[in-house]
Write a structure and sequence with these properties.
heterodimer; A: 123 residues; mainly alpha; two-stranded antiparallel ribbon; 5 helices; B: 502 residues; Sodium/glucose cotransporter; 23 helices
Chain lengths: 123, 502
């Protein structure tokens, strides 16, 4: 016959051992702890990656156009409704494209900030 | 155009500027009023104000002139001047607003805690401002000559005096509403005539450009300028990276309530500039058809003023000419006022002793130097000279802002070295081009479009020297980064730095 396990009286949960005392993240940031710095660096990195992505796309498009016109001279002669392609792109299409790109960027950058704020405020 | 209507237009715009300036005295006494008033300004108003201040003589007259002269390659100018705001948006706008800096020297001091860097930045702000003011005064002279036949220096002096009086009386600049109005005036003054010009062109049987032009002028990289590929890339680099370093643009970002609004404002600026820059190409192309004699006479900057009278004619043509002339003078006044305030503020506060008296002396200095420069400089197309100011900004403040905002290891020594190397080289190139020259061959191309080599030099020097002096990283860099990047709604310690106000 097996021995019954001894009965124990639970008087309180083991809070002390299980959890370290936790600060809000804003306090980690204010006191410039390693953890606080990790949070800030991750925000800066996220935003920088986004900025770099936009700049790379912009650089490829804008930087690529003169090269394209140089390497494929026939492209310069293409006409859309009587207007040469370079004029259609540089004096027209490019401006709405800027605005669209900027709008997408603003949306994503605000989303990143909201995400960061949610993490920081979650206790 | 007849003298009477043109003169009336000029006088009206000048009078409006002076009157508004006089009322501005009462409306906005102190800088803090300006700050407080700004809190209720919506992104659309703010963006219109940025547009009003940004669209200068170079945009209003210069681009069309250069397109008339050189064709498709010059389309890159407005593309770059608008695209610069996209780069500014993604790399600079929100963090810059959050830094709380009011001027570029403020930012340098806030980020690097160094008075030496602050003073160097001040000198560069003044130089860029002067390079930018000079072509404004020059083209004011050109416009007045086209309207009245007065000697070239008269228009420059006229604009300089009105701007100086305005700035000294404290008005004009501080009122967001006025600058915002300027944008819509300039847009109307350029857009309305285009409708009539295109109708007249259709009525004329919609002629096309000559076969020779179609084979050269209308195509990119065939304009007949030397080294088209190098020049195009250098121009792209200068305009895209130079916009963020212009002193009068930066101040406007402070009038946003927070970083998020700064981003949204920049987005609206992009839309407004995009709408405006659709127009100069039309003037350039019509000018190629109808006013080729301007090219022969070397007065291509006048194409926008000449076309309405030539193509539409009659009373309507007269009225449209007057409208365009008014728009041109609005362009000189708004940009010059914004620049003069920025330059005078920096001279007064950082180079002289500060206070009201210094600001008055500084205002006179801010206006006189470019006026003298305009008289000794050889006559270059206005958009080209403005492009040189962009090159200096791109090779000095662009690296300072980008590395300062995103790179933790930037040191005061590194920033200093980069500013001196990039800014110094670019300034030398600009002065050599404007006062001396023209130079032939590669030397000429390198000096006329310096950005392609001075911008990389500035970045490399700033990074290498920073890495070599790790002990000069500011002690509070972590706190500064928190300040620059965390959204305002989070309650964190952002440090206690405030811009100094005299």
């Amino acid at each position: 016959m097996t021995e019954k396990p001894r009965r124990e009286v639970v008087t309180s949960p083991r809070t002390q051992a299980a959890r370290r005392p936790r600060y809000p993240v804003t306090r980690e940031i204010d006191e410039q702890t390693r953890l606080g710095e990790v949070y800030i660096r991750s925000l800066v990195r996220t935003q920088f990656r986004l900025a770099l992505f936009v700049c790379t796309v912009l650089g490829c498009l804008i930087g690529g156009l003169p090269l394209l016109f140089l390497l494929v001279p026939d492209l310069r002669e293409v006409r859309l409704v009587g207007v040469p392609l370079p004029w259609v792109v540089l004096a027209g299409v490019i401006y709405p494209a800027y605005v669209a790109g900027a709008w997408l960027y603003v949306r994503q950058a605000e989303r990143n900030e909201r995400h960061f704020a949610e993490i920081v405020e979650r206790q | 155009m007849s003298t009477a209507s043109g003169v009336t237009a000029v006088v009206l715009v000048m009078l409006a500027a002076v009157l508004i300036g006089a009322f501005g005295l009462r409306l906005s006494r102190t800088t803090s009023d300006f700050y407080v008033a700004s809190r209720s300004v919506s992104p659309l108003w703010n963006a219109s104000a940025i547009g009003g201040e940004y669209l200068s003589a170079a945009s209003f007259l210069g681009i069309a002139g250069l397109i008339l002269a050189y064709g498709a390659d010059m389309l890159w100018l407005p593309v770059g001047w608008t695209g610069g705001y996209l780069v500014l948006l993604v790399l600079v706008s929100a963090p810059l607003r959050r830094s709380g800096a009011y001027t570029l020297p403020d930012f340098a001091e806030a980020r690097l805690s160094s008075m030496t860097v602050r003073r160097t930045a001040s000198v560069l702000v003044v130089l860029i401002g002067w390079f930018y003011l000079m072509p404004q005064f020059q083209s004011a002279g050109l416009v007045l000559r086209a309207v009245t036949g007065a000697p070239v220096w008269v228009g420059g002096v006229l604009v300089a005096v009105v701007v100086a009086v305005n700035v000294l009386s404290g008005g004009m600049r501080s009122i967001t509403f006025v600058q915002a109005f300027q944008y819509w005036l300039k847009l109307t003054a350029l857009a309305l005539p285009v409708i009539f010009l295109l109708m007249a062109w259709r009525a004329d049987g919609a002629p096309g450009i000559s076969a020779q032009d179609a084979a050269t002028w209308a195509l990119p990289l065939a304009s007949g300028r030397d080294f088209p590929i190098y020049s195009t890339y250098s121009l792209i680099l200068a305009t895209f990276l130079g916009t963020m370093g212009l002193p009068h643009v930066l101040v406007r970002f402070y009038t946003n309530p927070d970083g998020r609004a700064a981003r949204r404002t920049t987005l609206v600026v992009l839309s407004l500039l995009g709408a405006f820059y659709l127009l100069p190409a039309v003037y350039g192309a019509l000018g190629r058809l109808y006013t080729p004699e301007l090219l022969v006479a070397g007065r291509t900057d006048e194409v926008v003023l000449t076309l309405p009278g030539r193509l539409v004619g009659g009373t309507l043509g007269e009225l449209l000419s007057a409208l365009v002339t008014a728009g041109a003078f609005a362009a000189f006044l708004s940009t010059s006022s914004g620049l003069t305030v920025s330059v005078a503020g920096v001279i007064g506060q950082d180079i002289l002793r500060g206070g009201v008296r210094s600001f008055q002396v500084a205002t006179v200095l801010a206006v006189i130097v470019p006026l003298v420069l305009a008289s000794v400089a050889r006559s270059l197309p206005v958009a080209d000279v403005v492009g040189l100011a962009f090159a200096v900004a791109a090779s000095s403040f662009c690296p300072l802002l980008v590395l300062g905002i995103w790179w933790w290891r930037l040191t005061s020594t590194g920033a200093m070295a980069g500013l001196l190397a990039g800014g110094g080289l670019a300034c030398t190139a600009v002065l050599t081009t404007v006062v001396g020259g023209p130079y032939e061959g590669w030397i000429g191309a390198l000096l006329a479009q310096p950005a392609a080599w001075t911008v990389p030099v500035a970045f490399i020097v700033m990074i290498v020297v920073s890495l070599a002096t790790p002990d000069r990283v500011p002690v509070d860099v972590a706190r500064t980064m928190v300040r620059l990047h965390t959204p305002e709604r989070l309650n964190v310690n952002r440090g206690d730095w405030r811009p100094r106000r005299s």
